[in-house]
Amino acid sequence: MKIELRSKMNLKSKHLARALKCIAVFFLTFIVIGCSSSLSDEELKERYDKALEAKNWKAVIELLDEIIEREPNDKNTYYTRALAKSNLEIPDPKGVAEDLTTYLSFDPNSYQALYVRFQAYSVLGEYDKALEDIDKIIKLKGKTAFLLAWKGNCAFAAKKFDVAEKTYEERLRLPGGIEDLKNTYYYWVFSKYFGGNKESALWDVAFLEDRGLKADHDLMRLIEEDKLVFEELAQFELTQMSLEQLEEVLNNYCASFDIFEGESYFRSGLLNRFARLEKTEDLNALLDQKEEVYALNLSYSDFSELPKTLTQFINLQYLNISGTRFKDKEQLFEDLSKLPNLRILIAYRCNLRKLPDNIKLLQNVEMLDIGTNGLRELNENIGALTKLKYLSVRSNSYLKDLPKSIENLRCLQFLNVSGSGMTRLRDELSNCSELVSIVANASKIKTIPEQIGNLINLKHINLGHNKIESIPESIGKLSDLEHLGLGSNDIRKLPKEFSNLENLGFLSLAYNRFDEFPKEVLGLNNVYNLWVHNSSFKIIPSEVGKMESLTHLLVDHQVISNENIEAIKTVNPALRVIREDNQKYVKTQKRKN
User: Fold this and answer.
1) What pLDDT score does 224 carry?
2) How far is CA 533 from CA 469, 489, 539, in A?
3) H-type helices in 110-197, by residue range?
4) Which of 518, 516, 513, 515 is nearest to 530 (CA)?
5) What domains does the chain contain, in order, with CATH numbers?
6) Quick one: three-class SS letters along 451-505?
7) 368 Cβ neighbours under 8 A, 6+ residues apart
8) I want to staple 161 with a disulfide (CB 3.0 to 4.6 A). Which of 81, 116, 195, 357 is the partner?
């Protein structure tokens, strides 16, 4: 049995050539002082270019030796020579490791160099050192399925079975194909067996089918008869991967499905597609096609714990368990973590009250709805769900604040805290730079982060019906903002930077405490819908009619005079000025605000 988790030793030549060509620039300005070589700079450069073009790696390395002798502190030359050594007909992993060790003394946080050195150490059988490099990369880039698989492999090969067992278990909680998950599960079992826990290994093999895999009686027999051979299992294949592919594997944390799907930023188009998903009454009836089941609606069921058969649906990505009361919340999330491809979890009205500590196990979940649960607090461990794109905690009126760890949700695009008891949007939220939409109306919010301008991807904010008194100056940096609801607050003035919101289309300032019309909005030439009713000012300047895109203006019927309205319409006869007494229109629009 050989695992099919892959890595790489030899980089593709075209990517190496690109790196080596960068060194050629070095020769253009390099001045030889006291050089023992008989070659001039021009001759050295000419020979280097020819060797590179011919992919004569031995010659390239000899020429790089000369460069290093002349300039030993040029770190990039060591990196390039390491890549060249990896492309020799008979690679030189020892030389690769030595050169990269020198390079890393200059740049210890280069995860690319650490990765290539890890491979060299693996080829050399120095698995303890390879394991150290993988740990350093994880510290720099976070835990991914790819890195955890290789950390487990290195630990296993180094006979650190306790580390391997723990790492493979973490990997099993992350997404992957059936074969990858099967291989990981097997090596999880092997780690237990060679670590001296034969009974647990047998137990896990007995439950292969419960994890959506096929029963393996041969493996059971091998373990029972102590016939597993470590040397046969501790052979891991290092496969081809370019530097570009490495970048994609390690950096593409937030890439996945589109939660909006081209629809309005007020809601998720993806969740709308699942809204009519028929409820599943009999899971057992689906077992024959379990690998083809990607979405299940188990909402408002009468069970008090997740059915054991659920873990057999290994490709399950969407699960709705709303309205179901679970006795043991800790066990609930432990069971959910056994669904490695689960990405969307809908669990509102589950009477959670408080999220258990092991919420952190759901590190593969990208959309989480835990609204209307009577939550008193959000566990700090929710910050471990670093792939979250969508988080809804709406209608939890006892929820007073977001956890500090919210700053770790760097992939978060949609946040809904409406109907909560929150008194602020805490400062750490400004670190969630991928946010596109914030829905926080009908709460008790008084303050907005001073650095809200860091959220450069924001397109939609609804902060209506709160207790906000001031708007931070940095809001002017939100150049992509299209919809801003600030109605029903205690705002008296806007910062001058507000006029920088050049893409704003909808703006509600209704039911606030402005003593005079906020002139900062006059330069917002993309605003088409403006609500300014129910404030203290009695005059709206006629310049409002000059706002280029404005088509609808909602005003206060009892305060703004007919003469004022006519003056505005004189400037823009096509403008539809709607008086607040038009109840049908107002009620319709308030639902959107």
Assistant:
1) 97
2) 17, 13, 11
3) 111-124, 127-141, 145-157, 161-171, 178-194
4) 518
5) 11-108 (no CATH), 144-251 (1.25.40), 253-443 (3.80.10.10), 469-593 (3.80.10.10)
6) CHHHCCCCCEEECCCCCCCCCCHHHHHCCCCCEEECCCCCCCCCCHHHHHCCCCC
7) 345, 347, 362, 385, 388, 390, 391, 392
8) 195
| Strand-pair partners of 22 | none
The pairs formed by 446-453 with CB atoms below 8 angstroms and a separation of 24 or more are 447/423, 448/424, 448/472, 448/475, 449/425, 450/474, 451/427, 452/425, 452/478, 453/477, 453/478
Residue with tokens 């237990």: 192
Q: Any idea which residue has 């007494």 for tokens?
A: 581
CB atoms within 10 A of CB 176: 20
What's the pTM value of the predicted model, to 2 decimals? 0.81
CA gap 452, 473 in Å, rounded: 9
Exposure string over 369-392, b if 16+ CB within 10 A, otherwise e: bbbbbebeebbbbbbbbbbbbbbb
The residue type of 210 is: D
Which region, left, alpha or beta, applies to residue 395 given φ > 0 means left and ψ of -120 to 50 means alpha? left
DSSP state for residue 514 in the 8-state scheme:
-
- Mapped onto helix, strand or coil, the DSSP state of residue 319 is strand
In DSSP terms, which residues pair with 579 in a beta bridge?
A: 555
Could you give the 3-state DSSP secondary structure of residue 413? coil
- The residue behind tokens 């990517």 is 15
